[in-house]
Write a structure and sequence with these properties.
CATH topology of the domain at 12-87 and 163-263: Rossmann fold
CATH architecture of the domain at 12-87 and 163-263: 3-Layer(aba) Sandwich
Low-confidence stretches: 1-9, 261-268
Order of helices and strands: EEEHEEEHHHEHEHEEH
Number of helices: 7
Strand order of the largest sheet: 6-7-8-3-9-10
CATH class of the domain at 12-87 and 163-263: Alpha Beta
Largest sheet: 6 strands, mixed
Number of strands: 10
Helix content: 25-40%
Oligomer: single chain
Shape: globular
Structural class: alpha/beta
Mean pLDDT: 91
Strand content: 25-35%
Distance between the termini: 45 Å
Bound molecules: adenosine-5'-diphosphate, magnesium ion
Length: about 270
């Protein structure tokens, strides 16, 4: 197949094919994913939005190789994957950082494990610390940082690994709104700069509209993708931009039936 080079590649980076995942919970079977199909193109910033308990984290964990699906396949660059790997790095809601290490040592940790020589990893980590505006805090310890700063470190650490796909599971959910708004802008700028392929999970509709060039709307019961919408709008997008409202309302409409009380999951 010819590769068309118009700045954005038409290659599919990651493909989820009919992913099904069940959990056994108190003697009952919970169908967390009931046939998820998703194509992620190279350089996509794809947001997955849906109500709590609809299977967003489970899907991301399957993509990361942390959970095995009951059936279905994940292909990365056309190759079947079933285990975790440095080609897919996850950023969680809580940074999952090492509190006893300095900021710079946290950022370098994965590079060290990967056997990158010291000088090279110093240079790489400084590049990403700089990108996340953390240079001044390189020698601080994690416990000295605010939640927002910790998330910056977690993002710098993930980017330093130069993954094929960056996976983000509600990374801004614990932040105050001012810090979040700032990081929403910064993440867009970093995405433009690094051209990373990002899958970003959130229950926050505004966040999905601000960040995504595509938004995949997850529904409950059965847990499937209800709709994918394309958001072709200039960047960086700001939370207060009224032109984003139409996308917001489109997603709200799709999700309305999903957040009725009877659809709520009692295991959350
Ligand atoms: N390890 C697990 N064991 C049992 N049930 C689970 C497990 N992980 C998730 N679930 C269930 O799967 C469903 C989807 O969960 P999750 O993917 O965490 O949703 P979301 O991230 O959208 O809030 C929920 O009903 C949840 O209770
Ligand atoms: Mg979740």
């Amino acid at each position: 197949m010819p590769i068309v080079d118009r700045g954005l590649s038409l290659l599919t980076k990651l493909q989820a094919k009919n992913i099904v995942k069940h959990f056994d919970h108190n003697g009952k079977t919970v169908v967390a994913l009931d046939g998820i199909n998703l194509n992620v193109e190279e350089g996509d910033f794809i947001c997955i939005v849906g109500p709590s308990g609809c299977g967003k984290s489970t899907f991301l964990n399957v993509v990361a190789g942390l959970e095995k699906p009951n059936s279905g396949e994940i292909l990365l660059n056309g190759k079947l994957i079933s285990t975790p790997g440095p080609d897919r790095i996850m950023v969680f809601q809580e940074g999952a950082l090492f509190p006893w290490l300095k900021v710079i040592d946290n950022v370098e940790f994965g590079l060290k494990i990967a056997g990158i020589p010291k000088e090279e990893r110093r240079e790489l980590s400084h590049r990403y610390l700089d990108m996340m505006q953390l240079t001044k805090f390189a020698d601080s310890y994690i416990y000295q940082l605010s939640t927002g700063m910790k998330q910056r470190v977690a993002i710098a650490r993930a980017l330093a690994m130069d993954p094929e796909v960056l996976l983000m599971d509600e990374p801004f959910a614990a932040l105050d709104s001012q810090t979040r708004d700032l990081l929403l802008v910064e993440l867009q700028l970093i995405w433009e700069r690094t051209k990373k392929t990002i899958i970003f999970v959130t229950h926050n509709i505004s966040e999905s509209v601000i960040l995504g060039n595509k938004v995949a709307i997850f529904k409950n019961r059965p847990a499937k993708i209800k709709k994918e919408i394309v958001i072709d709008y200039r960047r960086p997008r700001l939370a207060e931009d009224e032109n984003l409202q139409k996308y917001y309302h489109q997603i709200v409409e799709e999700l309305k039936s999903e957040v009725m009380p009877h659809a709520k999951d009692d295991t959350q």
